[in-house]
Amino acid sequence: MINNNFKVANSKAIKELKNGCGYAVFSIERMDIFKKLRKNLFQALGVKKNMLDKVEDYRKYLSNLSNAEINKLMIRLLSYNEISEMFVKSCPTLIKNLCGKKLFIQRRAHTTVKLPGKQQLKTLPHYEMMSGISPFSYVIWAPLHDLDNDDGGIYYLDKKRSLKIMKEEHKEGIVNGPKILNMKINEKPASMQFGQAIIFNPFIMHGNNNFNSDLARLAINIRFQSYNKPLLQKNTEYLKYFELH
Ligand SMILES: [Fe+2]
User: Fold this and answer.
1) What is the C-alpha to C-alpha distance for residues 28 and 184, in angstroms, rounded to an integer?
2) How far is 22 from 204, CA to CA, in rounded Å?
3) Ligand 1 centroid, distance to 200 Cα (angstroms)
4) What's the 50 CA to ligand 1 centre distance in angstroms?
5) Which CA distances in Å does 157 have to 22, 27, 125, 134, 217?
6) How far is the CA of 245 from the centre of ligand 1 (A)?
């Protein structure tokens, strides 16, 4: 049984997504599943059993690795096959209310490790439509720890600002080209706690800037849409069918 707080929060998030700014921060409903997801992820990355709950220590360890070493670690995640399904099962009511029970979900949710420091690569401003994602899809992004002690989150531009920029670029016949990628956006990232996530539609521009911290930032994100909506995907292998109960 879903409690009333979740019902209210879910309908608020859906309103923001459909008629408001195009994104919403929400609380993850099934923290039991989400915590297990994080534990499994750390195990797949090779974190020792006695270190599984010491997230800050692990972030500290990651922050001293090179990008090549991080990439090597990410390959280990190929053994973690349930990440997408567990992520979707962590937010069942919101997803069901938005898309129904029958879904297309990203075959493998992305895990991102961002390292602090000015020399690190930024995620340039972009919107998900650039990768051939259908306009009926949604993205959920969730940090695997609190984000309030560093600036390592993602910034989002509301629907109005995002569409204005996209329309300007569209006149040149380009989708997410240099004009957008070279934009300097000094937006503050959404501050979030472990247990919160952000959902946004594929037209919302977002990215991240360099951040100062002693710790790396760890997050996961997934794309999904209703099974009953057209896919419009360039590559259907990207998604798989999944039913929520
Ligand atoms: Fe993105």
Assistant:
1) 31
2) 7
3) 10
4) 33
5) 9, 21, 10, 19, 21
6) 28
Q: What is the pLDDT of residue 3?
A: 67
Chain segment 8-33, per-residue pLDDT in tens: 778 889 999 989 999 999 999 999 99
pLDDT in tens, 105-137: 999 999 999 888 877 877 888 888 777 788 999
Give, rounded to a whole angstrom, the gap between the first and last alpha carbons of the chain: 12
Q: For residue 31, how far is its CA from the centre of ligand 1 (angstroms)? A: 24
- Secondary structure E strands in 100-216: 102-106, 110-114, 123-126, 138-143, 155-156, 196-200, 206-208
* Residue with the two structure tokens 């195990």: 43
Q: How far apart are CA 128 and CA 126, in angstroms?
A: 7
Q: Which helix H or strand E contains 220, and what residues bound it?
A: strand 217-226
Which CATH code is given to the segment(s) 7-243? 2.60.120
Looking at the whole model, is its pTM more than 0.90?
yes
Q: Give the tens place of pLDDT for each residue, 173-212.
A: 887 788 888 888 877 787 789 999 999 999 999 988 888 8
**Ligand 1 centroid – CA 221 distance (Å):** 9
Distance CA 203, CA 127 (A): 6
| Token code pair at residue 181 | 């990628």
Residue ranges of domains in the chain: 7-243
Neighbour tally for 205: CB within 10 Å: 26
Shortest CA distance to 221 belongs to which of 55, 105, 59?
105
